Amino acid sequence: MILSIIIPTFNRRPILMRGLKEIAGQCQRGDAEVVVVDDGSVDDTVASVELWARESPVPVRMIRQDHRGPATARNRGLAAAHGRLVLFMGDDVVAAPGLVEAHLAHHHRFPGEDVAVLGRVTWSRELHISPLMHWLEHGGPQFCYDKITDPMNVPPVFFWTANISVARSFVCEAGGFSERFPGAAFEDVELGARLGQRGMRFHYEPAAVGYHHHPVTLRGSLARMESLAQGALIADATIPGLITLGRDTPWARARRALAHSRPVLAVVEAWAPVCTAVPALRAPYFRFVHDLFYRAALRRLIQETRWSPS
User: C-alpha 85: how far from its chain's center?
Assistant: First the structure.
């Protein structure tokens, strides 16, 4: 078998089912399979996938586990996969036509086991793309493909498992995903760093497009900074220098105190319409508030865990 598509999922049945039907329709029976790993969903994800699997054009397997996070779920998928290549997809990403073909064609041109192919993920055209969502993709901390300068020499930190294919044996020999990560934050980047240390080459294939069906609010994006800070502390052991705190100046301490104060989120949200109404202020505003919340969470976690730089 050529390809195993591995999708960890948690409580996203509607968009997962849509994504499954699209990507399975791009595969040839006998050449590909789909492995869905349910990470303890409490909706009817499992029943829906198992029912649809009976009529799927390609083999579909459902694996169940308690809620342990996407790193553990992907490892379960890897252990069950039969394909020479694995394509990791997000459960809220729907493949555009030709995604699977673009991945396979790239691997055909570069057949080495040491090549990973990063596809592109962009917001679904069905969503209203807010100024925040635009910034997150173009300059912000989410799917910043604009920062890739050489598609044939992509840094390992771009190992993003919403849409990436790689030789299964290479990932397994590297030990798979670290299950120390409780959530979706840096667990894929950390593996990318280890793969890079073992000689993996990372390519970018913009023709392999996936549409991200996940609207984001400012409140939700700032809340995610807590998860990113937690993931960064874990990943720092593999990626030295990942965490840069800067000097602990009075201004830095004041910013942390501000971020920890209860009314700050309301103030940030109140200022958002004003700042985003002026195009020149959007990026600086979003960058400032995300950095504020991220560094505040990082400092607090460092104090709680007594972390020291690797």
Answer: 19
Tell me the pLDDT tens digit for each residue of 159-184: 999 999 999 999 999 999 999 999 99
Write down how long the chain is.
310
Which residues touch 201 (CB under 8 Å, ≥6 apart)? 112, 114, 115, 116, 153
- Using an 8 Å Cβ cutoff, are 123 and 167 in contact? no
Q: What pLDDT digit, counting tens, does each position of 54-77 carry?
A: 999 999 999 999 999 999 999 999
Same domain, 237 and 269: yes
Does the structure show a pLDDT above 90 at 260?
no
State the helix-helix crossing angle for 13-24 and 45-53, rounded to 10 degrees.
20
HEC profile of 100-169:
HHHHHHHHHHCCCCCEEEEEEEEECCCCCCCHHHHHHHCCCCCCCHHHCCCCCCCCHHHCCCCEEEEEHH
> Mean of the per-residue pLDDT values for the chain?
90
Dihedrals φ, ψ of 156, to 5°?
-60, -20
pTM for the whole structure: 0.91
> 310 in a domain, yes or no?
no
Give the tokens for residue 248: 């602990």
Token digits for 106? Answer: 């790239």
CATH number, domain at 153?
A: 3.90.550.10
The parent domain of residue 257 ranges over: 218-305
Q: Domain end: 193, 212, 231, which one?
A: 212
CA 165/CA 85 separation, integer angstroms: 7
CA distances from 16 to 22, 181, 195, 202 (A): 10, 23, 28, 27
Domain termination site, one of 212, 236, 263: 212
